[in-house]
Design brief:
The complex is a heterodimer of chains A (about 325) and B (about 350). With about 325 residues, chain A is an alpha/beta fold. Chain A contains 14 helices and twelve strands. Helices cover about 50% and strands about 20% of the residues of chain A. With about 350 residues, chain B is an all-alpha fold. The chains are: A alpha/beta (about 325), B mainly alpha (about 350).
C-alpha cells in the first residue's frame, strides 16, 4: 500500500512538473484554474530567505503553488523552533486551508496546536523533520511527511565518506549544531556511520554566530586541524558550513583529498568545493521536492480527501563523479 | 624607588615615550595575555603561523565594521543596520560584476550603496528625529529584505573574480601567506585613529556624543555631523562587504547576519562608551581580534562538545573585567604611575 501511494505520488509530481515545464504561461494558468478554487497554504520554509538550505525548497513550493492554484504564504524562522511555534499560531489564526510545518520544535510542542487546527478543518502536513506520532494520528486527515529521513541521510553521507577512502582507526570530526538536538539528527547519522566503520570520531559544536555567518568557521576549523593534524575526515550537515569547507582546507594548508569531507546541500560554493575535489560527498535531500510535495499534499487532501503520504526525498549523494550532470539543474534552483 | 631614575632615563627615548602614550594598552595586554594562554594550552596551534593567517583572513571584515561603529557609538548613537548593508552592498558588487564584468566599478558601487543606506539612516536620525536604534533596526529589516528580493533569494558564485587584479590587491596573499585584507583593515584603523583623534570631524563627533546641546552652542552643526557619521559607517560596511564577498568568491543573501553581536562586542570590549563622548579606535582593533580569535582558541585547547560556547563566554567576560581593572579600576593607579614615570608631565620639565 505504502509503495503504491509513493508510486502514484511520484507519477503525479512528474506529470505536474512536465505539465508546468511543457506548457506556455496561459496553459499553466488554465491548468491551475482547472484544479478548482484557490486555496491558501501557510508553509514553514526553515531557514532564511535565499540561504542554501532553503532556496530550492522555496522554489519547489512556489512551482507547486503556481501549478495547483494555491496562494502560498512563506514563513521563515532561521531554524528557530520557538519561531516555528509562533508562526504556526499566526498561520492558524488566519484560518487557511492548510499549514505545512517542520518537526524541529517536537511533537509535545505541536500536539495541542495541531489538534486545535485539525478540529477547525485545517489540513496540516509536515516536511524536513518528521513528527511520526502526529502523522499517524492525523494521516487520514492529510497529515503526511515529505523530507529526508535525516538520520538515514546522515548515515548515508558517513558511509559515502568511508567509501571515499577512510579506514578503521582514522580520526574524524563532525562539526554541527550539537547544542540543538533537532538540528543535529542528520549529523548523528554521520557520526554513527563513521564510528561503525571503526573511526575515532569527535563532536565539535557550531556556535550561533557561525550558524549565522559560516565564514567565521574558518579559523575555528583551522585551529582544530592544527591541533589535530591526524584528522582524516570532517563531517557536517550544516549547509552553509559545507559551503565554506573549501576555504577552511585552503587556510589549513590541505590539498584536495588530504581530508575527506562530507557535507549537505548544494549551494554554489559547495558545488565549487566538489568540483575542486575538496568536498568528497554532499548529502542531497532534494529540497525542491521538499517544497513541492507538501503543497501538493495539502491540495490533494483539500480537494480530493487524499490521506497523508510519507515520502522520503533524501536517498542520494553528490560527489565529484556526478556533479557535472547535476550542476546545471542546481543553477536553475531545481536541485 | 631605586628604579625610577632608570625609567626616567628610558623616558627620554622617544619610542618608549610614544608607546606609553598609546591608548588602549590594557586591551592590548588582554589580547596578548589571551594569545599567551592559548600558546601554553594549545602550542601545536598557536606557535604555528596558519592560525594567525586564518585570523587575518576572517577578522578584517568584522574589524572594518567595528571601526565604523566606533564612530557611531562615540557620537552617542547606535547602528543596527550594518549587517544588512554587508548583504546589500555584497549584492550590488556581485550583481554588477556578473552583469558588466568590471570589478573596480563594482567596488565603487558597493561602497556608494553602503553610503546611501548610511545617508538615509543619518537623515532619519538627524533631520526627522527618529531614535537611531529604531531607524537602523527598521533599516536592517528593509535592506536585508530588499537584498533577498533583488537577488531572487539566490546565492551567486563569482569564481572569475580570482583572476582580477582587484582580488589580488584586496584579498590576495602577500609573500604567499599574509592576507592583503588584513593590511587594508590595519591601514583603515590608522586612518580612523587620525580622523577621530587628530581631525576636526572626530572632535565634533566627541562633542556631539558628550552633549549635543553644548556642541550646538560651540557652533557644531550636530545634524550634519550625524549624517556624515552614518554615511561614513555605511560606506565602511560596503567596503567590508567587498572584502567578504571577494574573499569567499560567493555572495549569500544572508551574509553579514552573524556579525551583528560580535562587532558590537568588539567595540564595547575595546572600551568605547555606550553613553557616547568617548571612543577608542585602537581598543576596537584589539577588541575585534579578541572576539574573532576566542572560539578558535577555545577549540584549539581541546575543549569540545557543549563546552565551547560556555568557555568562550567566560573568556570574553574575563577580558572585559581585566580591561576595566587595568584601565579604570584598582590597577589604574599603578598603571598611571608607571606611565607618569615613562612620560613625565610638562610640570616636571619633561
Amino acid at each position: 500500500m505504502k509503495r503504491s501511494t509513493r508510486l502514484i505520488t511520484i507519477l503525479a509530481v512528474i506529470a505536474l512538473i512536465v505539465a508546468a515545464c511543457g506548457s506556455d504561461e496561459s496553459d499553466s494558468d488554465n491548468a491551475a484554474a482547472d484544479m478548482g478554487d484557490e486555496i491558501t497554504v501557510y508553509m514553514q520554509m526553515g531557514g532564511n530567505q535565499g540561504d542554501p538550505s532553503t532556496l530550492a525548497r522555496t522554489n519547489g513550493a512556489k512551482a507547486a503553488a503556481a501549478a495547483l492554484n494555491v496562494k502560498l504564504i512563506e514563513q521563515y524562522s532561521g531554524w528557530d523552533p520557538q519561531v516555528m511555534i509562533e508562526q504556526f499560531k499566526e498561520a492558524a489564526a488566519a484560518d487557511p486551508d492548510g499549514i505545512v510545518i517542520m518537526g524541529h520544535p517536537g511533537e509535545d510542542a505541536f500536539a495541542s496546536l495541531v489538534a486545535d487546527a485539525e478540529s477547525r478543518g485545517i489540513v496540516i502536513t509536515s516536511g524536513n523533520n518528521p513528527l511520526p506520532t502526529l502523522e499517524a494520528e492525523y494521516q487520514a486527515a492529510g497529515f503526511g511527511y515529505a523530507g529526508a529521513d535525516l538520520y538515514a541521510g546522515g548515515y548515508l553521507t558517513g558511509q559515502a565518506m568511508v567509501a571515499a577512502g577512510l579506514q578503521a582507526g582514522d580520526k574524524a570530526v563532525v562539526y554541527d549544531i550539537w547544542h540543538n538536538e533537532s538540528r543535529s539528527v542528520s549529523s548523528q547519522g554521520v557520526f554513527d556511520a563513521l564510528e561503525a566503520a571503526g573511526l575515532t570520531v569527535e563532536k565539535l559544536d557550531v556556535s550561533d554566530e557561525v550558524d549565522q555567518e559560516a565564514s567565521l568557521a574558518i579559523p575555528i576549523l583551522t585551529a582544530y586541524l592544527a591541533d589535530n593534524p591526524d584528522t582524516k575526515a570532517i563531517g557536517t550537515q550544516h549547509g552553509n558550513v559545507t559551503a565554506n569547507l573549501m576555504k577552511v582546507l585552503e587556510a589549513a594548508g590541505k590539498a584536495p583529498g588530504d581530508v575527506i569531507v562530507g557535507g549537505i546541500d548544494l549551494s554554489p560554493a559547495t558545488i565549487e568545493g566538489i568540483e575542486a575535489g575538496y568536498v568528497s560527498v554532499s548529502f542531497d535531500q532534494v529540497l525542491y521536492l521538499q517544497g513541492f510535495l507538501p503543497v501538493l499534499q495539502v491540495a490533494l487532501n483539500a480537494r480530493y480527501l487524499i490521506p497523508g503520504l510519507n515520502i522520503n526525498t533524501g536517498v542520494g549523494t553528490v560527489t565529484p563523479a556526478n556533479i557535472g550532470e547535476i550542476a546545471p539543474l542546481i543553477e536553475e534552483g531545481i536541485r | 624607588m631605586a628604579k625610577r631614575p632608570v625609567l626616567t632615563r628610558l623616558a627620554k627615548r622617544p619610542v618608549l615615550t610614544r608607546l606609553a602614550k598609546l591608548e588602549s594598552l590594557p586591551i592590548a595586554a588582554v589580547l596578548l595575555t589571551l594569545y599567551l594562554v592559548f600558546m601554553i594550552t594549545a602550542p601545536n596551534v598557536f606557535t604555528g603561523h596558519r592560525i594567525y593567517m586564518s585570523f587575518l583572513q576572517t577578522i578584517p571584515p568584522m574589524l572594518v565594521l567595528a571601526l565604523g561603529l566606533t564612530f557611531v557609538i562615540t557620537a552617542g548613537e547606535i547602528d543596527l543596520s550594518f549587517s544588512a548593508v554587508v548583504a546589500f552592498a555584497g549584492f550590488v558588487f556581485t550583481w554588477w560584476y556578473r552583469t558588466v564584468g568590471e570589478p573596480w566599478s563594482a567596488l565603487l558601487l558597493a561602497i556608494l550603496a553602503g553610503a546611501l543606506v548610511g545617508y538615509i539612516n543619518g537623515v532619519l536620525v538627524a533631520k526627522i528625529g527618529v531614535p537611531s536604534i529604531m531607524a537602523t533596526l527598521a533599516a536592517q529589516f528593509f535592506w536585508a529584505g530588499l537584498t533577498v528580493l533583488l537577488a531572487g533569494g539566490a546565492s551567486w558564485n563569482i569564481k572569475g573574480i580570482q583572476d582580477e587584479a582587484l582580488h589580488g590587491i584586496f584579498v590576495g596573499r602577500l609573500f604567499g601567506s599574509i592576507p592583503a585584507q588584513s593590511l587594508w583593515a590595519l591601514a583603515l584603523t590608522v586612518f580612523c585613529w587620525f580622523l577621530l583623534n587628530r581631525h576636526r570631524f572626530g572632535e565634533e563627533i566627541m562633542f556631539v556624543g558628550d552633549n549635543p546641546n553644548v556642541a550646538r552652542v560651540m557652533g557644531i552643526n550636530v545634524e550634519r555631523t550625524k549624517i556624515k557619521l552614518f554615511t561614513m559607517n555605511g560606506a565602511m560596511a560596503g567596503f567590508a562587504a567587498v572584502l567578504l564577498t571577494t574573499e569567499m568568491n560567493t555572495f549569500w543573501t544572508t551574509q553579514g547576519e552573524g556579525y551583528l553581536l560580535p562587532v558590537m562586542a568588539a567595540v564595547f570590549i575595546g572600551g568605547s562608551s555606550i553613553a557616547g563622548g568617548e571612543g577608542f579606535v585602537v581598543g576596537t582593533f584589539f577588541g575585534a581580534y579578541i572576539i574573532g580569535s576566542l572560539e578558535a582558541g577555545v577549540v584549539a585547547t581541546g575543549i569540545g562538545g557543549y563546552w565551547t560556547q560556555l568557555v568562550s563566554g567566560l573568556v570574553m567576560g574575563a577580558s572585559v573585567v581585566l580591561n576595566i581593572v587595568i584601565g579604570d579600576g584598582r590597577l589604574a593607579a599603578v598603571s598611571n604611575r608607571v606611565r607618569s614615570w615613562v612620560t613625565p608631565s610638562r610640570d616636571d620639565g619633561g
